[in-house]
Design brief:
By secondary structure, this protein is of the alpha+beta class. The protein contains 13 helices and 16 strands. It has an eight-stranded mixed sheet with strand order 3-2-8-9-10-11-1-12, sandwiched between helices. Helix 9 crosses helix 11. The longest helix is centred in the C-terminal third of the chain and has 20 residues. The chain binds iron/sulfur cluster (2 copies).
Length: 408
């Protein structure tokens, strides 16, 4: 985890306040930027050596892409999301962040689907090993949503704080600049409020922006959380935030919480799932689940991977780490066979890991409530409904014992 991100863990909302000396930038300051000054911020991040990426519209979805100014951001773009459904619609407004998360999150920027671990080649009869992970410029993320930043915090626990840190991931995270934009309009599949991961941004960012658009104009309230955030804002025009700006932020977040229609009761849920491994709901969901793995591909916290060696015709060998999915049969291959050969066992593994055993492993939830697995499941399976169904009938067991029905 980034050193300054550790400092951020101790920040709470009350530390971002307005002081009379807020004509100067400092960690903890809250200031206001005009919309057009985002372009100045983006340019300054480029001058500091960052590759700046933000939300862009591509192939009918909001996904991360290179941004050079406000014109590249999804102005007036809204989304419609439901189980098994995602589409963009154009609104009448000029807002830039009036959408919830799309299929492409920030995980691939730090933990790519394919990552070369090393390359071996023959040079003058010697085997030469090279690692190329130092070559990318540091990334500036402009406009991650709070649940996505929370998901990066979850990945940090796994990929940095675990027994075997991923040095490529750690390096990218360490050098990155994170500007989070708080959510004003959750979609119908969001439940970040239940998972304590939104709609407000709490930790893990350098600056937190809230888009405000009211009688006082279209602007961004900016909370500065780190020295890196102070550096990024040098030379960017701003004005001190006043109490109206702070109230507008509170109202925006209250509206977002009120608009969230999907919820998950998490109290005791980890224990409920752990003691219901024979619940008939697993059979029910297996009858609908296609084992396609879409949910794991879009999930911002799924981290499973395989390692394989690839050779090319020049004789080079590339050791590559690639994403893996617990929905593939091979993923549970052990000693001559898969230990999770059925869809029922694989869905149960995925969901109980997210909501239950992740707590045992990492002392955190493996789910941040982004809802992507609901929107991008081709048959609309909803993790909140499946987990709630089990919680409602805690203790129910399958009619037939697993041994009488074949393998789990
Ligand atoms: S399990 Fe689903 S809702 Fe939870 S973080 Fe992953 S994709 Fe988002
Ligand atoms: S729950 Fe949905 S997205 Fe996940 S593997 Fe099953 S069908 Fe695919």
């Amino acid at each position: 985890m980034r050193e300054d991100a550790i400092v951020l863990e101790s920040h709470d909302a009350s530390q971002f306040d307005r002081r009379d000396d807020d004509t100067a930038l400092r960690v903890g300051a809250t200031v206001v930027l005009r919309v057009e000054d985002l372009t100045t911020l983006i340019a300054h991040l480029g001058d500091l050596g960052y590759e700046v990426k933000g939300p862009t519209v591509r192939a009918g979805a909001v996904v991360p892409g290179p941004v050079r100014g406000v014109a590249d951001l999804p102005r007036g773009v809204h989304d419609v999301q439901a189980p098994g459904e995602y589409r963009l619609v154009r609104g009448e407004d000029d807002r830039l962040f009036e959408w919830a998360v799309g299929p492409g999150g920030w995980k691939p920027e730090f933990f790519p689907a394919h990552d070369d671990v090393w390359r071996a080649s023959i040079d003058a009869g010697e085997v030469v090993l090279t690692e190329d992970h130092h070559e990318r410029p540091p990334l500036a993320v402009l406009g991650a949503r709070p649940c996505e930043v929370a998901a990066l915090g979850v990945l940090d626990r796994v990929l940095i704080e675990g027994e075997h840190p991923d040095i490529r991931y750690a390096e990218r995270r360490d050098h990155a600049f994170i500007a989070v934009v708080e959510c004003a309009t959750p979609s119908a599949i969001c439940f970040c409020d239940s998972m304590n991961a939104g709609p407000d941004a709490r930790a893990g960012f350098d600056v937190a922006l809230t888009e405000l658009d009211d009688a006082r104009g279209h602007r961004f309230l900016v909370r500065v959380a780190t020295a890196r955030g102070v550096d990024a804002l040098q030379g960017v025009p701003f004005s001190p935030a006043n109490t109206d700006d702070l109230s507008a932020r509170t109202e925006s977040l209250d509206r977002a919480r009120g608009a969230m229609v999907r919820h998950l009761a998490t109290e005791g849920l980890a224990e409920v799932l752990a003691r219901n491994l024979e619940h008939p709901q697993w059979t029910s969901v297996a009858e609908r689940c296609l084992s396609c793995g879409n949910c794991t591909l879009v999930c911002p916290t799924c981290f499973c991977s395989d390692v394989r060696d690839i050779t090319d015709l020049d004789g080079d060998v590339i050791r590559q780490r690639t994403w893996a999915s617990c929905f593939s049969v091979d993923h549970s291959y052990l000693h001559g066979g898969a230990v999770r050969p059925t869809t029922k066992s694989r869905y149960r593994q995925w969901m109980t890991h997210k909501l239950s055993s992740w707590w045992d492993q990492f002392d955190a939830s493996g789910c941040v409530g982004c809802g992507r697995c609901i929107a991008w499941c081709p048959v609309g399976i909803d993790i909140t409904q499946e987990a709630s169904a089990i919680a409602r009938s805690d203790g129910a067991t399958s009619v037939a014992l697993p041994s009488a029905r074949g393998p789990l």
